[in-house]
Amino acid sequence: MGRYYRYRLPLWCRECLFILERSLLPIIIFQAIRTLFIPTSFDIIILSILIGVYISFRLHWI
């Protein structure tokens, strides 16, 4: 359903999704490096949420 649902959205919303999808990997890499040097529970939670959203994009759930 996610594959076809994203094309029913308004154009501005679709563009925001595409931009988010492209910029998510560099943000995950930065957050992973930050978590390696200064690990806090908040950093780990943020990193796991970002990885979950990235996997959702890759599997076309969003």
Structure description:
The model has no long low-confidence stretch (mean pLDDT 88). Helix 2 packs across helix 3. The protein is mainly alpha-helical. The protein is elongated. It has one domain. The termini are close together. Helix content is 79%, strand content 0%. Keywords: Membrane, Transmembrane, Transmembrane helix. The chain crosses the membrane at residues 36-57.
Task: Write a concise synopsis of the structure shown.
Keywords: Membrane, Transmembrane, Transmembrane helix. The protein is an all-alpha fold. It is built from three helices and no strands.
Walk me through the topology:
Layout: H1 2-5, H2 11-37, H3 41-58
Keywords: Membrane, Transmembrane, Transmembrane helix
Transmembrane segments: 36-57
Q: Report the sheet-strand fraction.
A: under 5%
Query: Based on CA inertia axes, which overall geometry fits?
Result: elongated
> Count of DSSP E strands?
0
Which structural class best describes the helix and strand composition? Answer: mainly alpha
Which percent range fits the helix content? over 70%
What is the average of the pLDDT values? 88
Tally of helical runs: 3
Distance between the termini: 9 Å
What order do the helices and strands follow? Answer: HHH
Rg: 14 Å
Keywords: Membrane, Transmembrane, Transmembrane helix
Transmembrane segments: 36-57
